[in-house]
């Protein structure tokens, strides 16, 4: 039996995912845990902090040995809408109510566009959100139907199918269903994430506001011997953790 076959048989017995790399005189083995971590990420698709949270989760996913399943749930954060329009109201002629309506409507339409993209695959929906946030949040472009359809075309979605799904009652029902999920998980602001680990079926962890990679690693388990000595900033993060992490029974 070849050496790599022996390694594979051994790893299968441990119930680990793995890759075996052969290169002349050495064998490299990349071992990945079979454990599953599922993350529900609640975001405002047009929000700066939500854009940062999405990037942090994506980076975190690449650094973990476990299988990470991320479910993005876009939603309108009405408290954020109010804060945004109060800041803008000094320089704009329209009333706060009008601004609230416009800002929340843009976010709502972006949520529907995300779900319509998801009808053509989860990866396409994530790509739509990524490009949308790059253009609106990072480049400062206004959210319009023209921008939405430009993204749809550029990422390779079927435009006709997207339009049909975007305008359908089913997409609106999916959005409302996700709002119910947010309510059940007691999510009141964005960004927020709920973390489920398959070794703990009784409870999950809700992380509000302070979505940082170090905190995520701490919550999901990390070898303390590999962590650098905590400085004042790290101690401060740990104190924040108690306020922002809640157990869900």
Describe the structure.
It is a single chain. The protein has helices at residues 3-13, 48-63, 78-88, 96-118, 122-138, 145-154, 159-166, 169-184, 213-220, 232-244, and strands spanning 17-23, 26-32, 36-43, 67-74, 192-197, 204-208, 245-248. The protein is an alpha+beta fold. It folds into two domains: 3-32, no CATH class; 36-248, Glutaredoxin. A hairpin with a 2-residue loop joins strand 1 (17-23) and strand 2 (26-32). The longest helix is centred in the middle third of the chain and has 23 residues, at 96-118. It is globular and about 45 Å long. Mean pLDDT is 77; it is low at 13-32, 81-90 and 223-230. Pfam families: Thioredoxin_5.
Summed up:
Keywords: Isomerase, Membrane, Transmembrane, Transmembrane helix. With 249 residues, this protein is α+β, with helices and mostly antiparallel strands. It is built from 10 helices and 7 strands.
- Total beta strand runs: 7
The side-by-side strand order for the widest beta sheet comes to 4-3-5-6-7
Tally of contiguous helical segments: 10
User: Percent of residues in helical segments?
Assistant: 40-55%
Largest sheet: 5 strands, mixed
Q: What percent strand?
A: 15-25%
Could you say which overall geometry the principal axes of the C-alpha atoms support? globular
CATH fold description of the largest domain = Glutaredoxin
Query: What is the CATH architecture descriptor of the largest domain?
Result: 3-Layer(aba) Sandwich
Mean pLDDT: 77
Write down the Rg. Answer: 21 Å
Could you give the distance between the termini?
Answer: 50 Å
- Total separate domains: 2
Helix/sheet category: alpha+beta
Elements, N to C (H/E): HEEEHEHHHHHHEEHHE
GO molecular function, one term: isomerase activity
Keywords: Isomerase, Membrane, Transmembrane, Transmembrane helix
InterPro entries: Thioredoxin-like_sf
Transmembrane segments: 26-46
């Amino acid at each position: 039996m070849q050496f790599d076959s022996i390694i594979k048989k051994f790893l299968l017995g441990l119930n680990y995912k793995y890759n075996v790399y052969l290169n002349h005189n050495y064998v490299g083995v990349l071992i990945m845990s079979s454990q599953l971590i599922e993350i529900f990420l609640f975001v405002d698709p047009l929000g700066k902090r939500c854009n940062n949270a999405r990037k942090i989760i994506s980076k975190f996913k690449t650094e973990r040995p476990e299988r990470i399943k991320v479910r993005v749930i876009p939603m309108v954060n009405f408290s954020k809408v109010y804060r945004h329009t109060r800041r803008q109201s000094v320089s704009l002629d329209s009333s706060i109510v009008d601004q609230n309506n416009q800002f929340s409507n843009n976010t709502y339409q972006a949520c529907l566009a995300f779900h319509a993209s998801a009808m053509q695959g989860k990866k396409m929906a994530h790509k739509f959100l990524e490009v949308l946030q790059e253009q609106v949040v990072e480049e400062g472009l206004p959210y319009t139907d023209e921008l939405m359809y430009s993204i749809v075309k550029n990422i390779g979605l079927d435009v006709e199918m997207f339009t049909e799904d975007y305008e359908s009652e089913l997409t609106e029902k999916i959005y409302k269903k996700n709002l119910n999920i947010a309510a059940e998980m007691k999510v009141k602001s964005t960004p927020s994430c709920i973390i489920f680990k398959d070794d703990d079926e009784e409870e999950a962890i809700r992380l509000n506001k302070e979505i940082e990679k170090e905190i995520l690693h701490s919550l999901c388990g990390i070898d303390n011997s590999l962590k650098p000595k905590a400085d004042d900033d790290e101690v401060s993060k740990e104190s924040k953790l108690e306020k922002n992490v809640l157990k869900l029974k």
